[in-house]
């Protein structure tokens, strides 16, 4: 984070953007107001609700979270980087759209320390099916998985084990929920 803030305050090009937006030099160091949240956190806005659940990924050093946003009778869930766990499964309950990370191809074996945190497409599909998810899309493919042959395998696994619409997201793709 320090390097990012230094780049925003010290690089000449960043300083010129700051000036073009009405700032003056020297550019002050940003002072964001940060509110740490815990699993189970909820926030309600004007017609929408955000809720969180524990995503098992980097504990005990980091507390990782998945999120659900509900509005207009629709529910979107983003798993964050996580293995399948009861908290995320509950968060996914009856979701209209689930975007879940997929760090391992079907049947791929990783280091034993990574396996509990890295579901394959079929495992994600099983969880989503049981949770009543309507649409399931996978993200976060590693480079050796990010080609048409591996995408086809993942889509086949999803189709075998999930009855709703399913696929793999691409950068900048948009969906209506």
Structural class: alpha/beta
Q: Fill in the CATH topology of the largest domain.
A: Metallo-beta-lactamase, Chain A
Largest sheet: 7 strands, mixed
Helix content: 25-40%
For the record, the CATH class of the largest domain is: Alpha Beta
- Share of residues in strands: 15-25%
Which stretches of 5+ consecutive residues score pLDDT under 50? none
Number of domains: 2
Number of helices: 5
Mean pLDDT: 93
CATH architecture of the largest domain: 4-Layer Sandwich
User: What is the overall shape?
Assistant: globular
Key words describing this protein structure:
177 residues; alpha/beta; Metallo-beta-lactamase, Chain A; 2 domains; 7-stranded mixed sheet; 7 strands; globular
Question: What topology does this entry show?
Answer:
Layout: H1 2-10, H2 12-20, E1 42-44, E2 48-54, E3 65-71, E4 74-78, H3 86-91, E5 97-101, H4 121-131, E6 135-139, H5 148-161, E7 165-168
Parallel strand pairs: 4-5, 5-6, 6-7
Antiparallel strand pairs: 1-2, 2-3, 3-4
